[in-house]
Every structure is written in structure tokens, then in C-alpha cells.
What does this fold into?
Amino acid sequence: MRKKPEPSLRARALQYLARREYSRAELRGKLLPHVQADEDFEQVSPVNLDALLDDLTARGWLSDARAATQLVHAKRSRFGTQRITHELRQRGIAEELISAALPALKESELEAVREVWQKKFGTLPQDAREKARQMRFLQSRGFGFDVIFQVLRSESDIE
It folds into this structure.
């Protein structure tokens, strides 16, 4: 049985980009292990990998700004600003793009923490232990104490 030929670096990159948006750093990390594997067949080096990434960026197929926007939209309903910012940094998004996304994230944070709290708990804590549990959960989702306190206080005002 004949073995299928390995896809080229460009083909791999396009397969990844067809599934979802990637940041440049993320895509570089995914393709880097295949650079060494391809060296036997073609003369591909990390320099050529950077040239490929430059070409994909120039064609508009690779965009850190789109990757950041996509991640923010995907995570906003479940996570807080701190967690989303951390994920953006992990994916190699530039600080300028993160700073540009922060005002919109902070604006919608109170609404997001209310939704997450309502979905998970829905009722106010009856004692200090339950309150601590709810706060830890919301904090683990990346919400700041200021909005967590706001939600727990405002919900008690409503009832």
C-alpha cells in the first residue's frame, strides 16, 4: 500500500486557516514541527516559514486582528476580561490589539458576569460559605472582584 505524500507547509497552513482564525504566532507554532519533517523533500527553513506567513498576511488570509476579534466574540459570554486578555496573550496577539479590545470588554463585563452568575447560580448566597463559593467560581472565569461584588449586591437589591 502506497503512503500518502505529506501536505506542503502552505497546504497545512491553509487547512488550519480554513477551520478558524489563527494569530501569526499560533500558526507559526503549529507549522514549526513540520518544517523539520519537510526538510528532506524541500528546502524549507524557519526563514522560509516566516516568508510563507508574510505571504499569507499580505493576501489577507492571516490576521492577528481577526483572530483577536474572533476569540473575544467566542469567549465573551462565558469569561471575564482578565481571562480573555490572558488567552489573547497566550496566542501571541500584540499588546496594541489587546489594548484596543479592552474598552469593549470592560463595557460588557457587568452584563457578562450577570449572565454567567444567573446561568450557574440564579439565587443569592444564603451564607458566607456559599457567597465565597460563588465568588471563587466567577473569579475563576476571569471576572474582577469589582463586578462580582456589583452583581451580588445588585441582585440582592432586586429581590
Observations:
- The chain is about 70% helix and 0% strand.
- The mean pLDDT is 89.
- Residues 127 and 133 are 10 Å apart (CA to CA).
- Residues 95-120 form the longest helix (26 residues).
